[in-house]
Amino acid sequence: MLFKNIKTKHKIVLAGVLLLLAFLLVPPVKFKNTTSTVLLDRNGQLLSATVSDEGMWQFPEVDTVPEKFAICLTQFEDAYFRYHLGVNPVSVIRATKQNIQARRIVSGASTIT
Length: 113
Prior knowledge:
- By secondary structure, the chain is mainly alpha-helical.
- It has three helices and two strands.
- Among the domains are: 29 residues, no CATH class; 49 residues, no CATH class.
- Helix content is 38%, strand content 8%.
- A two-stranded antiparallel sheet has the order 1-2.
- The longest helix has 18 residues.
C-alpha cells in the first residue's frame, strides 16, 4: 500500500490538506433565490413552516432579519463565521480527526454559509 509506512498523524494531516483543497477547488452550489415559508397567526404564533423549493431550509438575507437574531445564529452555529471564507479549516480537521478515531461519523464541520 502507498501509505503503509506513513504514520497515522501524517495521514490525518494529509487527509485534512486534501479535504481543504477539495473545498477550495469545488465551486459553490448556486440555488434559486427562494426562501422557506413561515405562516404566523395575528399574534405572531407559528402555524406552519415549510422548506424552500429546493427542499432545504433557506432563510432571508441577513439584512432582513433582526440583528439580535443574526448574532445569536452566528454564535450558536459558527462562532468563527466572520473569520473564514465559508469553510473553517480548524473545524474540518477536528471533525476529520474525531471521525477517524471513532471509525464512524461522529462530528461534522458545517457552517451557515
